[in-house]
Amino acid sequence: MTKEEMQAKIVELEAEMVTTDFWSDKNHAQAVIKEIAELKAKIAGVGKYDKGNAVMTIFSGAGGDDAEDFSAMLLNMYIKFFEKQKFEVKFLHENKNDHGGYRNITLEIHGKNVYGMLKNESGVHRLVRISPFNAKQLRHTSFSMVEVIPDFKDSGSDEIVVPADDIRVEFSRSSGPGGQNVNKRETAVRVVHIPTGIAVHVETERSQEQNREKAIQVLKGKLFKKQDDERKATESGMYISKTTEIEWGNQIRSYVLHPYKMVKDHRTNVETSNVDAVLEDGEIMPFIEAEREL
Description:
The protein has about 290 residues and is α+β, with helices and mostly antiparallel strands. Helices cover about 35% and strands about 25% of the residues. The protein is built from eight helices and eleven strands. It has helices at about 5-15, 25-45, 65-85, 115-120, 180-185, 210-235, 275-280, 285-290; strands at about 55-60, 90-95, 100-110, 125-130, 140-150, 165-170, 190-195, 200, 250-255, 260-265, 270. Belongs to the prokaryotic/mitochondrial release factor family.
């Protein structure tokens, strides 16, 4: 539904509210009031899940060890930001390399308005620097993808339904914390959504069933974001797959450490030369606030 269609619907519903028999059906009246509030919130840019928690995954893209190191830098940036916001963080899965970098890592963030604050961090992030992994000290460009989805656990939403026949569940030994007993049994769970190929891996809960439930929750969030991206792409005439390619040309933000220092958001043109404040101290609120105003 476009903004104009939502505004027209609000006018229609508000006209219904002033009719003499509006309150004769109390349940219907309350449903109308709720729908008006939801439509107004959407127009204002406050989505259905904005006030809830979120799940963030950072994937390394082109760039090998450099990209995986960049993912670790982004993780540190976000952790510092979460600490400033008093958000709670729980790690769900990590795939780490031998240099302290990450091929991918998934975390759950709890707090007030987390999803609404973080959802526009989704996209490709680009790093330009002298590679610490190159003996020739050459400048290197690497990419990481950040994906932020709503946490469906506490939403009570039935908006995303995943039929049992559409998923494949695989089990393996957990590599995460939980004690000796956890690591002796196959508690880690990987859930694959067969129609789309989307896969979710969770290993930090203490039991196989808890990991399975969490993985399905995350899968629902990923399917919701996929549907939301496709809706936005249809409305704007964009080709949706472009947003998921972790490569040159699709970045939402660049972090340049050489030959000059600058962090620039390509959607809002907000930039700063204080790269250390961004990457080391998590000072990303100016970018988030600017994106909200678009």
